[in-house]
Write a structure and sequence with these properties.
single chain, 9 strands, alpha+beta, 188 residues
């Protein structure tokens, strides 16, 4: 969650050096923004019943999870850790990290008691995405579904691989759904 609009407000508390006050301030802002989203989306106003869906990428598959997305329990803030670049803490249910450079609060996702695996979807990785795109364009009137670049059957859709024009055709090591090749987030 982006908190740039509150940067000066948060910095005043950071200067105080009181870690519990910092966690409280960040959490209070996050909760108010969540309540606004809950109201806009017609969700439970206390957040305890709200669910967040997310997708991770494992070798050859997309993994769909859901997890509780509650308000931060500001009465149970603990395990504070301040570094030069971030501040992390927990409320006993979720772990949070606030990064100073971009004024964002991150909630840690992963294998927790409130995380449920919903589905795994096989995703083949095409060796030559440009050849695939070229063939798809040339055969745009005869759309086919590709699995490892072998035609299977006619389909109403074309499944395109992840790639980057800026990266000269290669997928960057830390791009969106390509996170299985990316660096791990450090929770210091």
């Amino acid at each position: 969650m982006q908190l740039k609009a509150y940067k000066s407000e948060i910095e005043k508390v950071i200067i105080s050096g009181k870690l519990e006050d910092i966690a409280y301030k960040i959490s209070s802002i996050k909760n108010e923004k969540l309540k606004t989203d809950y109201a806009r989306l017609g969700l439970s106003d206390n957040g305890s019943d709200n669910i967040y869906h997310y997708i991770t990428r494992d070798e050859g598959k997309l993994v769909i999870h859901e997890t509780a997305y509650p308000l931060v329990n500001i009465n149970n803030l603990k395990e504070f850790n301040m570094t030069k670049t971030s501040f992390s803490f927990t409320d006993g249910l979720k772990d949070y990290k606030f990064t100073f450079g971009d004024s964002q609060i991150w909630m840690k996702f992963g294998k927790t008691s409130d995380c449920t695996l919903i589905d795994e979807i096989y995703v083949g990785i095409i060796d030559d995405p440009f050849q695939f795109l070229k063939e798809a364009f040339e055969n745009r009137n005869k759309i086919v579904l590709y699995d490892d670049i072998k035609p299977k059957e006619k389909s109403d859709a074309v499944y395109l691989p992840l790639y980057s024009i800026q990266g000269k055709g290669e997928v960057p090591s830390k791009s969106g759904l390509n996170a299985f090749n990316g660096a791990k987030i450090s929770w210091q």
